User: What shape does this take?
Amino acid sequence: MRTERKPTRLDRVFARLDREPERPALLDVPEMSRHRFALFAGTLAFYLAIVWAVLITSWLVRLDWQVMFFRPYQQWPEIHAFVDYYVVLGQRGPTAVMVAAWLGWRSWRQHTLRPLLALGVSLLLLNVTVGAAKYGMGRLGPHYATTIGANEMWLGGDIFPSGHTANAVVTWGILAYLASTPRARRWLSAVSAVTSLGVGMSTVYLGTHWLSDVLLGWVAGLLILLALPWCEPLIARAEAWILGLRDRWFARRGPAERPVGPPVAVTPSGREKAPAREPAAAPRPPRAPVYLAPGPHTTRSDRTPVTPAGSRRPPHSDRHPRGTAPAARPLSGG
Assistant: This one.
């Protein structure tokens, strides 16, 4: 009895890398539930509280100055080179390219544009909200501070909130938002949280951001991820419009660019008339007779087979070749 081989973990991994035959019927699209709305409202209140604490120059601003005077990059100089590379995980260009490549494969595999459109919408919200807050409040960074103990607001800066931190939260958190299973969502949420936390603390270590900048950057990125379900209807309409435009474009240009292949023999059905048979080929004309030279000729059967050792036929005195008359036998007297 032959048993089938049980697929291994590696087989299942390669199976998930293949493209699905068609778009999945049910895609897990998050909705703005009451629980999510409560989280969004609480996060927005925390955002406003941080801004207010900086505006009134509260204890949070004093903590910013204490961390700045501590100068972490001088306390632990041996990790400076590592932090310089690690902070790249919060830069918008490299992270957007890496995440877009992964989500592009997801879009190709599931026959849907939703992953790429969700990334585009999240980055658009990030640029609008965080950029407006940066230039609206104009806070100077630690390296350009002018007055000790001041909040350094409305002085032409652009570091409040931290763009590196907010970008890390959004670009890595979108992977958890678009995860296909609850287990993958939990793991990716933990990975994105640790990554964005490390990016924020790296900017504080390097002295490019105040601690309050990093706090506001975390909250700003989380607000964008929590607000994405409100954008899902817009993403669905944009996907339907793009796919419809693609279908119309192929319908217009497809027949002209379709390659012409070899003809295919089609079996006629009962309703169709069978094609007429081709006329039979004309019979070949008879060959002209072959004329032989005069003289006696022996057929192949009369020839004596010859081998390297000589003839294989024993000699017979009474045999005579065909075409000659046999010799007359003497008559015995009787």
